[in-house]
């Protein structure tokens, strides 16, 4: 487990970029946190670190955003807020998204059964106006390695 206290949206984006650079095809990242906790802000950084030139937005009527990279390996960003359960997710073909890129899921608990057990899980919490606590947990060996690398790049050593 890795814990951070972010002191502003810029710092959250920087952390996101560092993480996005470590992701590869097939990787799944779950983002948990209340409205305004900073999930989309973190994704903005992740898309940048991933190497996408597309802008990150989260219009409430879009379920899946795709951030493209020149090599065609794309970052998919699913907002499961309005999905009821894993059955709803079924129709979205998550397997395809993981096959041709990586997948970030906001509100993952709604569709937990449609997601792989192994993943990187990030919890964001409001602490103060500009402060957010971020907790990173890995499930499975692959994500443990990503998190170890992330920790080293963040804290050194
Ligand atoms: N340290 C911080 N990290 C991230 N966002 C911050 C921070 N401090 C302030 N903010 C602000 O908090 C808001 C976070 O909004 P954001 O859209 O990222 O949240 P969200 O978790 O995606 O919410 P929603 O569930 O409504 O989509 C932004 O306006 C951002 O500027
Ligand atoms: Mg959001």
If you had to describe this structure to a student in words, what would you say it looks like?
It is a single chain. By secondary structure, the protein is α/β, with parallel strands linked by helices. The chain contains five helices and seven strands. It has a seven-stranded mixed β-sheet with strand order 1-7-6-2-5-4-3. The protein is globular and about 40 Å long. The mean pLDDT is 93. Adenosine-5'-triphosphate (ATP) binds at residues 6, 8-9, 11-12, 33, 35-41, 58, 130-132.
Descriptors:
157 residues; single chain; binds adenosine-5'-triphosphate; 7-stranded mixed beta sheet; 5 helices; alpha/beta; binds magnesium ion
Bound molecules: adenosine-5'-triphosphate, magnesium ion
Residue-averaged pLDDT: 93
* Total number of helices: 5
Main β-sheet description: 7 strands, mixed
Strand runs, count = 7
What share of the residues does DSSP label as strand, in percent? 25-35%
Give the end-to-end Cα distance, rounded to a whole number of Å.
Answer: 16 Å
Order of helices and strands: EHEHEEHHEEEH
Walk across the major sheet and give the strand order: 1-7-6-2-5-4-3
Helix content: 25-40%
Computed structural class = alpha/beta
Oligomerization: single chain
C-alpha geometry: globular
Question: Can you summarize this structure?
Answer:
Helix content is 32%, strand content 29%. With 157 residues, the chain is of the alpha/beta class. A seven-stranded mixed beta sheet has the order 1-7-6-2-5-4-3.
